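Pasting two entries for a bug report.
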Amino acid sequence: MRKDASRVLYDKYFNLRNRNIEIVLKNGRRIRGIIVGYYTDDLENEESAIQMWHVVVANQSSCLDFSGFGGNNGTLIRHRDIVSITFEEDQSTMIL
């Protein structure tokens, strides 16, 4: 079975030490930051596709509020809206 592109991204990203990235969206918007979370369509299945990524600006990551009161900074990005991701650590670019 062919691995979903979102899982390939997950595997690469979470094996990096320097997790700063730049995401280019279909609408031309560029987002620089780090991924702090993701949402799948099926929590029971580890192989399910990732639908959305939670990205925060890199220098705001230390300001996250995990209290559950909605104080998180950041943006939810649909995986299907991503054109490419450039990884700062190795300067590679993943085209989706």
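Entry 2 (this is the one that rendered wrong in the viewer):
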Amino acid sequence: MAGRTTIKAVRRRDLAFDVGIATLTFGITLGVLASHGLGVPDPSARHIDGIGVLLAMASTLPLAARRLAPFTVYLVTAAASLALVELHYPLDFPFGCVAAAYFLAVAYSGDPRPARRWAAMLAVWSFVPVAAAARAAGGQEMRGIAPGLAFWALIFVGAWLVGDRARLRRERMTELEERALRTEREAVRERRLAAAEERTRIARELHDSAAHAINIILVQAGAARLLHQRDPDRSQHAIATIEQVARSTIGEIDQLVHALRDDAAGQVPADPAALDELLDQHRAAGLAITTDLRGPRRALPRSVAWATYRILQEALTNAARHGLGRADVAVWFSRTRLRSQ
């Protein structure tokens, strides 16, 4: 709700600042009254007394509560200032009332309810006409006080306009801060989504790698069982292949789990040498492979290298599981593309 707040929302630093403003305006107002005005002293003006001090306090000290009830603060300071004028104290400038008008504009000039906004505006702009009527009722000629009243009118209008600009600037700063917070939250969300996608990709690679290794181990274990009596050498070779595949799979699983645990986005990419390693593993598992590798071997982008490796790994696994025991592999390297069959 515009123009209103709670005591809990007022911080000690803000309260100390408002108390300082109220004390300063009270001191200035009291000094003006004690020195019989800002310009040439008016012999007919009333000298400062207890009533004048109390009215000076009422016209300035309520500024300390301007964050809690800006409209009430303005009405109190305006009423006290008009009383000083009515009682013919030499109040050449209503410092407290002008400050309250500024704070009222900051609080209410942007109120979404037109009735409150217009009420605050009329309260500020009607001070000078009421003060003029009070001085006229006190027997002062309008011709002599007209320049001073015109100056007051400009000051009050300016206080409202400056307060409105201050409100707009404050709202703009608040909007920029909120936008920065939203941008930061969106960036955090994007990073979390990217991390989740990376975890999904790593989990998929872990599944593919484990399935590939288990398939080779199953094939080699069956061969070792069948050849255990007839051909002990080939049986030992199959068991050695099982050991080698299991060891390399454990290392790969450790690498993938480490990436998941540390939120690491990157891993060591599969370079061309890893393709030869993959082919040698399947040859050792008993799959007859003919290869056609063309082009210069060079480092590949991480996504391309891993995609090539996984595609070839899946194809060889399917060939060993469902094929006739042989596979033809073609990997062609060129300057701008990589083709595998």
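Dev reply: Rendering is fixed now. As a check, the viewer should reflect this: DSSP finds ten helices and three strands in the chain.
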